UniProtKB/TrEMBL annotation:
Keyword Oxidoreductase included in the entry's annotation: yes
Name of the protein in its database record: NAD(P)/FAD-dependent oxidoreductase
Organism from which the protein derives: Paractinoplanes bogorensis
Record keywords, A-Z: FAD, Flavoprotein, Monooxygenase, Oxidoreductase
Gene3D superfamilies linked to this entry: FAD/NAD(P)-binding domain (3.50.50.60)
Signal sequence segment: none
Length: 472
């Protein structure tokens, strides 16, 4: 088997594969020079998880750090330690960027083409590269950028030499990256302004889970981690369901939290009152209310307006005001790409992924022996990723047991629903690139871990699946 990506998903997949098939050979192909994926790529100030680590961590390896919302460095080290302790690291081929994957029906194998011109073959391909483009972020054209005399930075490519102490900084955006950057930079910068076109829902959560800490004092690490994980899953899923069914109640709750954090109702209504319902877009987490603290201290502020253009001294707004800046950070979003951007073909014919249907949210209709890993939009990535890893192992075990070489999901009768269910701009811009959902199981991709954790391990691997060939 070939696994694409040595990030959180790829290392988890390798661990599950080794556990299920101790004798099966595999390799992990990683485009970068290090383990960690997204957590190795993003190096901007304050980079951290916006999901609690008891659900973002692997269920087979307890999270033992005291931080519940952990820094990128801690997460990267956790993934590295998991790979090292699991004996996975020797199986990783670094600097191996996969650019093409072609299935041969005659040979019943994938031929994977790498950027360096070499090729590898495998009977089964598992893409665990997520859906972010590592090569480019989303950068809207505001106009006049070339006239700006300061420094323009995108968080995805943070310069190691960027000195912002004592500087005026403008962060464009109001998503997870922006609300992380502002409180991280504010203590050292002269001032940080978060410039947003429209508000985003925020929720303040403790950076440290006191219940988990208490459980660790009286229980073994694995038992404490399991209970903390279950507690956080129930709370997050319960809150999500409440938001979808009683949005007005959750809207009031989030407003109350913001008013308590900022102490200014008018400021909240101007800058923290979104036009959409909670969870139409992903909810942003601010650990300990750090963003609110920096605003109250006067080290940070929020401006809600549209950009007219860049000018030499900063940014001119539609209102006519000019935000002066030494540094502008464009936290304007990410570019999404399916299957890690790999060009997939079957017998030489390109596969248009956006025209395919998503089988159980991890395979493509009509494409043999290919799985891909994506997480939930309303919960920790690892929750779905680990279910996917275990399902792939069950499918491989079924194939081995019956001597099958090839498994191909059939094409469903009806499709048309998007795979990702958020109204966020970065999602909407890429919907046509991703597979579609069908109108019945196993072609429906639900955002409900509590349901999936019961049904996925028991799902019939033969349903809507064609098996053929003789395994060698």
């Amino acid at each position: 088997m070939l696994i694409i990506g040595a990030g959180l998903s790829g290392i988890g997949a390798a661990w599950r594969l080794q556990q299920a098939f101790p004798g099966k050979t595999y390799a992990v192909l990683e485009a970068r020079a290090a383990i960690g994926g997204t957590w190795d790529l993003f190096r901007y100030p304050g980079v951290r998880s916006d999901s609690d680590m008891f659900t973002l961590s692997y269920p087979f390896r307890p999270w033992t750090d005291t931080a519940s919302l952990a820094s990128g460095e801690k997460i990267r080290q956790y993934i590295q330690d998991t790979a090292d302790d699991g004996g996975i690291t020797p199986h990783i081929r670094f600097g191996a960027r996969v650019v093409t994957a072609d299935w041969s029906s005659r040979d019943e194998r994938w031929t994977v083409g790498l950027a360096d011109g070499t090729a590898m073959t495998s009977g089964f391909l598992y893409a665990c590269a997520g859906y972010y483009s590592y090569d480019e972020g989303y950068q809207p054209g505001f106009g006049g950028e070339e006239t700006f005399t300061g420094r323009l930075v995108h968080p995805q490519f943070w310069p190691a030499d960027l000195a912002y102490a004592g500087k005026n900084v403008v962060v464009i955006g109001s998503g997870a990256t922006a609300v992380t950057l502002v409180p991280a930079m504010a203590p050292d910068a002269a001032h940080v302004t978060m410039l947003q076109r429209s508000p985003t829902y925020l929720t303040a959560l403790p950076a440290r889970d006191v219940i988990a800490a208490g459980l660790r004092r009286v229980l073994p690490a694995r038992a404490a981690n399991t209970l903390s994980r279950a507690k956080n899953i129930l709370l997050s899923q319960g809150f999500y369901q409440l938001a979808r069914r009683r949005p007005e109640r959750v809207r009031k709750l989030l407003r109350t939290m913001a008013v308590r954090g900022l102490g200014d109702e008018a400021y909240v209504d101007e800058h923290f009152k979104p036009a959409y319902d909670p969870w139409d877009q992903r909810l942003c987490v601010i650990p300990g209310g750090d963003l609110y603290e920096e605003i109250r201290a006067g080290r940070a502020s929020v401006v809600t307006d549209r950009i007219e253009s860049f000018v030499p001294e900063g940014i001119r707004l539609r209102s006519g005001a000019v935000l002066e800046a030494d540094i502008v950070v464009t936290a304007t979003g990410l570019r999404l790409i399916p299957i890690g951007g790999v060009a997939v073909s079957v017998d030489g014919e390109p596969v248009r992924i956006g025209e395919r249907a998503a089988y159980r949210g991890l395979m493509l209709s009509g494409v043999p022996n290919l799985a891909y890993c994506i997480g939930y939009t309303n919960a920790s990535w690892t929750l779905r990723a680990d279910l996917s890893h275990r399902y792939v192992c069950r499918l491989l075990r079924h194939m081995d047991r019956h001597g099958y070489a090839v498994a191909t999901p059939k094409s469903p009768a009806g499709t048309g629903r998007p795979l990702l269910d958020l109204s966020s701009g970065y999602v909407q811009r890429a919907l046509d690139l991703f597979p579609q959902q069908g109108d019945r199981a196993p072609w429906i991709v639900r955002q409900n871990y509590l349901r999936d954790v019961i049904t996925t391990p028991r799902a019939d691997v033969t349903r809507d699946m064609t098996f053929e060939g003789i395994a060698s």
